[in-house]
UniProtKB/TrEMBL annotation:
It comes from Urochloa decumbens. Keywords: Cell membrane, Copper, Glycoprotein, GPI-anchor, Lipoprotein, Membrane, Metal-binding, Signal. Gene3D superfamilies: Cupredoxins - blue copper proteins. Residues 1-21 form the signal peptide. This is Monocopper oxidase-like protein SKU5. Residues 32-145, 158-313, 402-538 form the Plastocyanin-like domain. The lineage of its organism: Eukaryota, Viridiplantae, Streptophyta, Embryophyta, Tracheophyta. It holds the Pfam family Cu-oxidase_2.
Amino acid sequence: MRRLLALVAALLALRLRPALATDPYAFFDWDVSYVTAAPLGVKQQVIGVNGKFPGPVVNVTTNWNVVVNVLNDLDEPLLITWNGIQHRKNCWQDGVLGTNCPIPSGWNWTYEFQVKDQIGSFFYFPSTGLQRAAGGFGGIVVNNRDVIAVPFGRPDGDITILIGDWYSKNHTDLRKMLDKGKDLGIPDGVLINGKGPYRYNDSLVPAGIEYETFNVHPGRTYRIRVHNVGSSTSLNFRIQGHNLLLVETEGSYTTQQNYTNLDIHVGQSYSFLVTTDQNASSDYYVVASARQVSNESLWHHVTGVAVLRYSNSGGPASGPLPDPPQDQNDRSFSMNQARSVRWNLSAGAARPNPQGSFRYSAINVTQAYLLRSTAPVWIAGRRRATLNGLSYARPETPLRLADAYGVHGVYTLDFPERPPPASGGAPPRVARAIINGTYRGFMELIFQNNDTRMQSYHMDGYAFFVVGMDYGEWDEDSRGTYNKGDGVARSTIQVYPGAWAAVLVSLDNVGVWNVRSQNLDSWYLGQEVYVRVVNPEDSGNKTEVAIPRNALYCGQLHKYQKEQTPHHKMGVSAAARRSSSAARWLVSAALLLAGSFVLAL
């Protein structure tokens, strides 16, 4: 009741913001709690949003303002991050520990951000303590405004598909394993939209597992948005008998190419057009299977299988699954496939001007960082993951909050531009060194993966241009191989074992932004850094919004925090539900007063 009445107040307050009147607001009210589920046949504790696993799809349009009121009904702190949403001028809403204090158990906190000048396919997830391994994730769809042309016809439907490896252990048990210096090991399976595999093989899939079914009509075209929300496994995605026409990835329209399958790495998002042009004698398999793994024979069970069912289907799917690429470990095939994903230079995106009007190759690089990762190492008795020999130590006081209040000593600005020499260099250490980015500079980031397994890396606050990748050690001559014309702009890049990937990014978004391994175990063990971008000439919040009035305070700034009475919703009484219903009526009344709002409670 109290939360909904607060939402009414927010609606009425927002009505008094004439400068934003042309940009609609979408309101969401989320209770994030534990839910009992058995996606692989074993009951376990997963994280749901409003009792659902996975969480709801956030469906908005370019420039809309998004307000998400989150009640943390878990028994530990919580943050939600918005993978690929750039939060222009507003890192306060990014939902990672470098910018936000976590929401204490039983408390609620309201995110408010604008999807400024963005379109495309993204997802959200809980960002702390391996919680994504337990769920809490869901899709984000940012639609084009009606006045902006889309480079393909209007689809007959829009389907979000969340794929990811899965462990039957709770995330708290996985944390304990990492804290003890152990590997997480081979996952127990792959989920598709939170459900286990269709029983395509009686010896590999036990009876009684619930699987996902995508119901379609023949002769139509659907936009399918696929996100790898898993912990650490690259997955090959395919639909039996159907082509995947790639049209967009992480907010950029791509050149349109047909694939029979595509490797989707941890943290990546793609959208395809799929035409239902096959006969309907039976259902079709939808498959997500492990890629780029060692000892392939041990990974057969790490396969997610759903069903594509035509409305006139003649029967269930049967027989063998559609083949993955011929060689499970053919990294040249996978890398060439990745290189084939190119920017559509002639299409507009969030704005009417073509994407290709931004000519990144004509801009001089002002800063360059070579970030080398290796297999985890032991530092002071603990197993840690590093970049350039440094393992990031998470602060008690968020970096951006420390800056705002003049708290010194929380971090240093001396992250090394190059890794230490392979021999004779400084030993690995734990530090809180971050990158001092130059506002309106142009940065080159080279990710060098000297580990023996796949990695993928993400940068908050930006889309970067993927200009090169190859096997071996990167050197200065590698720049001669860069794509200088149509490297796609995205926010997560895969880096193959023993290989490098290079990206370019224009530092035009003020804030403190996370660069991290998307592999949850590497991230948890310290493989991340932050890029601090400050406009030295801004004294009036023109290039960065002010600290939100509802900011949470922790660490050295805890004294500023007003206590909140925990108000878990578990075990809500009938009277409380009636009060909630009355409050929703008040919200509806407020909507009539407030104008252009969308409410999703």
